[in-house]
Amino acid sequence: MPVPIQPDAMRLLAALAKGSRALMRGRFWGDGVDALLGEIGQASGASRVWIFQLLELQDEAVIQDYVFEWAAKPSYRQLTQRRFRFFASVFDDPTYRRMVAERQRGMSQRFITERMAPGPLRENLESQQILSMVTVPIMVDGRWWGTLGIDDCERPLDWEGAGLDALVIAAELIASSLYRHQLASRRRQFELFQQVAECGIWEIDLHSGSTWCSRALLRTLGYPDDYARLPLRRLLAHMLRADRQRLWKRMRQCLSDSGAGQSFRLDVRLQRPETPARWHEIVAELACDTSGRPSVVSGLVIDISRRKQGEERAMLAAEYDELTDVMNRRGLTRHLQTTLKRTSTTLCHLLMLDIDHFKQINDRYGHPAGDALLKLVATRLDNELRGQDVLARMGGEEFAVFVSGLDDAQAWQLGERLRASIADTPFLLPPLAGMAAAPPVTITISIGIARLMPGQDLEHAQSLASTQADQALYAAKRTGRNRVMPYPQAAPASPQATQPAASRPSDRGSD
Ligand SMILES: Nc1nc2c(ncn2[C@@H]2O[C@H](COP(=O)(O)OP(=O)(O)OP(=O)(O)O)[C@@H](O)[C@H]2O)c(=O)[nH]1
């Protein structure tokens, strides 16, 4: 048996330099590893350089796969042998169990076969004509990922000293390259996730005020992917002022409740130059340093503009009458609430309008014709109103008009104008499928008017006004229809109410 020789450390160092360049530049991680193993193999004159990847560590066995190999000659090749495909090494030998435990702790192992104690491990090496072997675990993120090994079948190589140091560096180069590769693929997955989820990721260091934004977020805000640094002030300037104030408030709350894991969600509008603001949801979570002080706040920015549009459409649909396209009762209630909150002194009026004898229209011309008439009535009433007045369909053939800034006499005049606009010009119903064209139809409406006094209790003011307007409307119906009747408090000095002759729907000429 020849005396063990040591590998040339300087040649190994040069091999590491070349191999590490290949690892850094290689398009595919595996190509770089192949190149590094080749450099090490040639520099050391070994027969075989290999990497086993750990697949599973069981109680009684370790499962590995033979994933990389460089061989000095084709006869030394083992990678393609079936016995090295997902091979299980059973811990029936205490030496082997110890070896695995040491590899888990990141320790290297060197063997000169001839000097080994008899046992399964020595037999295993002898069966492969291996004269010496060295193994260095590849630790990724502190965990045993796999093993770099070198077999020599021609000379016993003693790896103690600088040679082993070079191999440890090689294993670390492989680990860091694998780590970089994993990070790069995570980043790609992350980018994809952000693209699909229409979100971006951000982080703010509370001590320094420095920010980090993912590429997706930078893009959303109109910056290039590789934008160097986005100061906090500039980042926040993308948020509408009112939303920024709400954000600060939430942030202060979160910090005063301080504790890691405090989180909040907030809908804000973000804008980039020259484009309209879009709704985003901010999801934020606070993290503390080891002394428990808030140190970092980070989270997501999710584009919710489509959801907001949907919500707005749903709200509109919920507040508008499908048949006539004017507001419905719910819409009017919300409009009254927002308007009355703003104006505490302006006098407002609520007019309740009801088509007289509408049932007869349905009976005579059919329900679809009644629908068409309701639409025409809504359009005609709307044409008589100012931009700030609101027309709503309260249900059936009943409408309401809300006006502000008129005195009682002007409100009455408006009611009279509305009444006359309906009564004075007959309606021409559109031809309906399968029906004979209806002749022009003359109808009338009755109107009740009440004052709406803005005050502290909006709900009460509203319901009182609608009750009073309803009562006035009922009085208008009772006293002959086709008239405007103010509730006593809303009655102008004169005249009190219109008193034209009551009329029934009739067929008359139209305009
Ligand atoms: N075509 C149509 N008819 C409706 C609609 N909603 C309610 N109506 C009808 O409107 C009619 C209202 O009848 P009534 O409450 O008796 O009132 P009216 O016939 O107008 O009589 P007065 O109000 O007392 O003058 C009923 O026949 C309802 O079926 C609708 O959306 N479309």
Automatic annotation (TrEMBL):
Biased composition (Low complexity): 486-504
Residue stretches making up the PAC domain: 264-316
CDD domains: GGDEF (cd01949), PAS (cd00130)
Organism: Billgrantia desiderata
UniProt-listed Gene3D superfamilies: 3.30.450.40, 3.30.70.270, PAS domain
Protein name: diguanylate cyclase
Ranges where the record places region Disordered: 484-511
Catalysed conversion reaction: 2 GTP = 3',3'-c-di-GMP + 2 diphosphate
Domain GGDEF: residue ranges: 346-489
Class of enzymatic activity (EC top level): transferase
Domain Phytochrome chromophore attachment site: 34-176
UniProt-listed Enzyme Commission number(s): 2.7.7.65
Pfam families listed in its UniProt record: GAF (PF01590), GGDEF (PF00990)
Residues spanning the membrane: none
Xref: PANTHER family: DIGUANYLATE CYCLASE DGCM-RELATED (PTHR45138:SF9), REGULATORY COMPONENTS OF SENSORY TRANSDUCTION SYSTEM (PTHR45138)
